[in-house]
Amino acid sequence: MKEKSAASVLSKPRWMKISASVVAALLLFLIVLGMFWSPMPKMFWVNEFVDEGRHVVGYSSANTLIRVAETLLDKRGGYLTNDRMPPGLWLDNMPNWEKGVLTQVRDLSRVIRNDYSRSQSQSQEDPDLVLAVEKFFSESNSWFFPPTERRYREGIEAMYSYQGRLTGAAQPDAQFYARADNLREWLAEVEKRLGSMSRRLGNSVATNVINEELAGDPSAEAAQTQPDTVNVRTPWLELDDVFFEARGTAWALLHFFRAAEFDFSQVLADKNAEASVRQIVRELEASLDPMRFPMVLNGGGYGLTANHSLVMANYLARANAAVINLRELLDQG
User: Fold this and answer.
1) Peptide bond into 95 cis (omega under 30)
2) Rounded to an integer, what distance in angstroms lies between the CA atom of residue 253 and that of residue 284?
3) Which contiguous run of DSSP H or E holds residue 136?
4) What DSSP state is assigned to residue 298?
5) Residues in a beta bridge with 307
6) Alpha carbons within 13 A on the beta-carbon side of 275
7) Would you say 197 and 97 are in contact if contact means Cβ atoms under 8 Å apart?
8) Are 306 and 297 in contact (CB under 8 A)?
9) Regarding beta strands 229-231 and 208-210, do their DSSP bridges make them parallel or antiparallel, or are they unpaired?
10) Is 109 exposed, middle or buried, given 0-12, 13-18 or 19+ CB atoms closer than 10 A?
């Protein structure tokens, strides 16, 4: 009886060791899998011609929008923002990257629907683009009934339908009007996004700023009392969130500006604005250089360590300045 009791006591530590080994192995596997899913997707080259070698105005923008949206869903690990299981559950860098890309997909799809595809304000909306915008603006973190991926793929299918009609592969024909005023509409959206993102990145070191909400208009009023200074410091745990959202924004915009170079080539040539687009592309490319450190550093302005947020803010601010310059060129007669 004593021998049996001693055997049972000895068996418990062995069972616990096996369980601990299995848990450790599973945890290690999930960590490695999370690292495999985390790198930013590679950039791709924008298509200028359809399969028959024909140049179709608008094809580059429509096709690039489709490929960027597909990359959002088909990259390593798939779409992670709505994951409810590890390792996607605890990954935050890639979901914030996805947020930046998705914002640009939504902005461009809305501009194509409202401006690029219509000759004037009373023109009828393209039904495929109406559906695509509706799907792309679906909830980004839904995982059940229906999952976000399904809605976004429906949006991609609608863009494929528009692209086929645009190139003449399907009927009725679709339109894309590459005009200076249409391009300005999209650039206005880009200017706001880059300006906001640059400010948020700069808040990695700022403590408070002077309140400028009512500046420039002596008769302006606000519903609530406005403080003289506003605390804008980004919390330490959110620094990498803002940084990777900015990387996603830059990644998507880089492809969309390359597409605009093809579709609006005549407009840019007439305004002698090609150099401005090339400058925007160069700044966005520089902002996507590989990081040399495994985490986002937040060193002081003149300290010993780098501040990745400020470096990113510098590139996006320079790109935004080039966007503003491009809009001014397009405004000129």
Assistant:
1) no
2) 8
3) helix 127-136
4) B
5) 298
6) 4
7) no
8) yes
9) antiparallel
10) buried
> Which secondary-structure segment (H or E) carries 63?
helix 59-74
- CB distance 173 to 58 below 8 Å: no
Q: Which residue has the tokens 């009023």?
A: 221
Two structure tokens written together for 141: 């973190």
Q: Is the peptide bond before 146 cis (omega within 30 degrees of 0)?
A: yes
CA–CA separation, 134 and 96 (whole Å):
22
Half-sphere exposure of 75 (CA within 13 A, CB side): 22
CA-nearest of 110, 114, 131 to 122 is: 114
Q: Looking at the chain, how many residues does it have?
A: 333
Predicted confidence pLDDT, tens digits, the chain (333 residues): 445 554 454 455 787 878 888 888 888 888 887 888 888 999 999 999 998 889 999 999 999 999 999 999 999 999 999 988 888 777 889 999 999 999 999 999 999 999 999 987 778 899 999 999 999 999 999 988 889 999 999 999 999 999 999 999 888 889 999 999 999 999 999 999 999 999 999 888 877 666 666 666 676 677 677 676 666 778 887 899 999 999 999 999 999 999 999 999 999 999 999 999 999 999 999 999 998 888 899 887 677 788 999 999 999 999 999 999 999 999 886
Query: Residue 286 is inside which H or E element, if any?
Result: helix 274-287
- From first CA to last CA, the distance across the chain in angstroms is 102
Nearest to 190 by CA among 332, 321, 47: 321
**What is the pTM for the complete model shown?**
0.89
Distances (CA, A) of 307 to 106, 108, 197, 208, 273: 30, 31, 16, 18, 33
Instruction: Give how far the C-alpha of residue 167 lies from the chain's centroid of Cα atoms, to the nearest Å.
Output: 27
Q: 178 is written with which tokens?
A: 């590459």
